[in-house]
Known about the structure:
This protein is mainly β. It folds into three domains: 1-161, no CATH class; 176-244, no CATH class; 253-402, Porin. The chain has one helix at 6-15; strands at residues 29-38, 41-42, 51-58, 61-64, 66-73, 76-79, 83-89, 92-95, 99-105, 108-111, 115-121, 124-127, 131-137, 140-143, 147-153, 156-159, 163-169, 172-185, 188-200, 203-215, 218-229, 232-238, 241-243, 246-249, 253-261, 266-274, 277-287, 292-307, 310-322, 332-345, 350-364, 381-384, 388-402. The chain has a 24-stranded mixed β-sheet that branches. The relative contact order is 0.06. Mean pLDDT is 91; it is low at 1-24.
Amino acid sequence: MKKNVFAPILVCLFLTAFPVSAQNDEVPESRPFQLSVFPFVGTEGVNSHKYVYDVSLNLFGGVTGGVDGIEFGGFLNINRYSVTGLQASGFGNITGGEVDGVQFSGFFNLSGSNVKGIQGAGFLNIVNGDARVLQGAGFGNIISGNSRGLQGSGFAGITSGNFEGVQASGFSSVTGGKLSGVQISGFAGIAGEVDGVQGSGFANVAGRVEGIQVAGIVNVAGNVKGVQIGVVNIADSVDGFPIGLVSIVRDGYQKVEFWGGDAMNLGIGIKTGVRRFYNFLTLGAQFLHDNTVISYGYGIGSEFILRDERYLNVEIISHYLMENRWWEYDRINVLNQLRVTYATDIDNRWQFFAGPVLNVQVVRAGSEGNSGTRVAPYHIFEFSSRHTDTWVWAGINAGFRFW
């Protein structure tokens, strides 16, 4: 897995001044204590970077070989090797090796190798390696390897490899490899693969999804085994349910149909999704002797294959009926339908269908007492209250669909 290039560059900038590399195999000597006012100005002088300390105190900043215990810095802590224990600073912590413990800073934490434990920063955490960590930052978290745990950031969380756990950010969460767990983003979530839940305020993008994708606007994926919920869902294939206004599945179900019936004389609809669950957008018109009612609606449905060239569709649709305006805030006129249709192929693109419809029209009068137009030609049941009338009747519709 390719590692993030920024972390090693930053580590190198801070370590090139030292005569011995942090990746050297030598084991540094341990000492109990050091105190520095500024880097190389303290109890150990210019030799502080050669030793690992049980207790390290840096009034402003200091450089040590490493810490196996506790280190506090007023502004900055720099360690050539590893840190085990607790490290805290007012501004930043820079560690050339691994971190095993707790690391806090007012602005940033930078680790040149793996991290295990807890990392908290006011602005940014960077790990140039793998992490098993509870990680929180006001702006961002960057891990160049694989990660396991909890990652939370105000703006962005980025893991180049695989991520197992919970990844949450105010703007964007990115996992280059496989995400196993939960990914939550205020704007966009991106992952190579998702095994779990991916949720965002605007968009989700993943190569493969096994679980749930939920977005405020759009979900994009390669192969989906599970559920997509968004205004627009896009996928190569879906073994599950894409729920939204429009679901575009390359290997899925896309059809356009025209129909007529007793409730709507003329209708046109677009179906998108998969055969077991598709979304249905409709436009229609009912031509009455003294008025014309226009409708737009949304529904869901499933298609069952009976045998070669024979199909059964079951659909639930809700139509909003209009007479003068696209929307009237204080008046309701809705036609709800349960449709069951039997279809047969005419050729490889066209089908003829027909079937019964259970219609329920609900009309609520507006504040001025004006009620919507009734489209029911008759009724089996009628329910009335002070401002609302409901009619139930059975009807039929028939038409053609193609793809």
